[in-house]
Amino acid sequence: MLITGLWVPFVKSLYLIIVAVVLCASVGGLIGIIAARNDRFSALIRPINDALQTMPQFVFLIPALMFFKVGEFSGLIAISLYAVVPAIRYTEAGLRSVSTNLLETATQIGCTPLQSMLLVQLPTARPALLLGLNQVVMAAITMLPVAATVGTAELGQQIYIALGKADAGLGITAGLVFCLLAINLDRILRGVAERLRGTH
């Protein structure tokens, strides 16, 4: 990256991914917690999640461009809309998989519902939550080249420049950087998830 001059686009890509993942984890995690505690809300949010996962990626650019100007923020909104679903689904699935015996024990020793959530359910569901975070990261990386069409100056933009100039070297280099970024983040998060699963 340093030799080929892709360091700045790489940092911008990493910045967009981190901000999108934090946003998706916060909003999606909250929605997943509500869905895990409310069956009606879960049934309501399920078809919305299905729609978000099955729509073509370019569709997510439409609401971003409708309400915001072309630029980094529109790209961030499009990435977040596409990547939020795994955060919702894995959070709900992880919390619902917690043993009822643990929850009953927590209630018997005097835990409030909030304490039970923070001290029992979330720690127990950590491996599932981390796998969900891993999927959010992968979805965000997948969406980066699409977000480049609305003016984000990151690695996806370099790929479009390479296509326009028929520059195979730049295209392959940017693609390899994408690949290495995704592989490293995937291995790190999966390793942490496996370690946490081994402690239970």
Write the layout of secondary structure elements.
Layout: H1 7-37, H2 39-54, H3 61-67, H4 72-96, H5 100-108, H6 113-124, H7 126-147, H8 155-165, H9 168-198
Helix pairs in contact: 1-2, 1-4, 1-7, 1-8, 2-4, 3-4, 4-7, 5-6, 7-8, 7-9, 8-9
Question: How would you characterize this protein structure?
Answer:
The protein is an all-alpha fold and 200 residues long. The protein has a domain at 15-153: MetI-like (MetI-like fold). 82% of the residues lie in helices and 0% in strands. It is built from 9 helices and no strands. The protein has helices at residues 7-37, 39-54, 61-67, 72-96, 100-108, 113-124, 126-147, 155-165, 168-198. Helix 7 packs parallel to helix 8. The longest helix has 31 residues, at 7-37.
Distance between the termini: 40 Å
Note the main sheet. Answer: none
Q: Give the strand tally.
A: 0
Give the rounded overall mean pLDDT.
Answer: 83
Low-confidence stretches: none
Q: Specify the overall morphology.
A: elongated
SSE order, as H and E? HHHHHHHHH
Could you tell me the radius of gyration in angstroms?
Answer: 19 Å
CATH homology-level superfamily of the domain at 15-153: MetI-like
Taken as a percent bin, the fraction of beta residues is under 5%
Helix residue percentage: over 70%
Number of helices: 9
Helix/strand/pairing class, anyone? mainly alpha
